[in-house]
Specification:
Blueprint: H1 4-18, H2 25-35, H3 62-70, H4 76-88, H5 92-105, H6 109-127, H7 131-139
Helix pairs in contact: 1-2, 3-4, 4-5, 4-6, 5-6, 6-7
């Protein structure tokens, strides 16, 4: 999550290259992300972004399906791996569930932090913006992952 600003810039460049006829798309994407980047946990779900650019990016899940199905063990490392594969396959809700279960199994502060970041990345993927993910991380700062 610490590299989110750089990732937003990189996605902007990718949008320019992938959709050259859609003028202003990268700027629109960056503006949406900045405008939705509130870090204050409100207890309320983030308002959806109208015409969300990030949600318009589609992912082919086929390359990841076999690897996802192969992970059947419910241990910390396996769940984190499965969560990451689920994110790659554009299955954010399932990824969030995997990371939350991994968080319950975490035995070291580093593992807790890894699981919290995974949940935040899943939230970002699910909502199409960083605001709710930022709020989640702030809400977790009292846990071992906040160190």
């Amino acid at each position: 999550m610490k590299d989110t600003a750089a990732a937003i810039d990189q996605i902007g460049l990718c949008l320019i290259n992938a959709r050259p006829t859609e003028k202003g798309l990268a700027t629109k994407f960056k503006t949406q992300q900045v405008n939705a980047a509130t870090t204050q946990p409100s207890g309320q779900p983030a308002a959806p972004i109208e015409d969300n650019v990030l949600k318009s990016v589609t992912i082919d899940p086929k390359p990841y399906e076999q690897a996802i199905q192969a992970i059947t063990i419910s241990q910390f490392g396996d769940l984190v791996g499965k969560g990451n594969l689920l994110l790659l396959a554009d299955r954010a809700k399932e990824a969030k569930d995997a990371f939350e279960t991994a968080m319950e199994l975490a035995q070291k502060p580093k593992d807790t932090a890894t699981a919290i970041e995974g949940v935040a990345r899943a939230i970002r993927a699910e909502t199409g913006s960083i605001g709710a993910a930022n709020a989640y991380i702030i809400s977790q700062q009292g846990s071992d992952g906040g160190k």
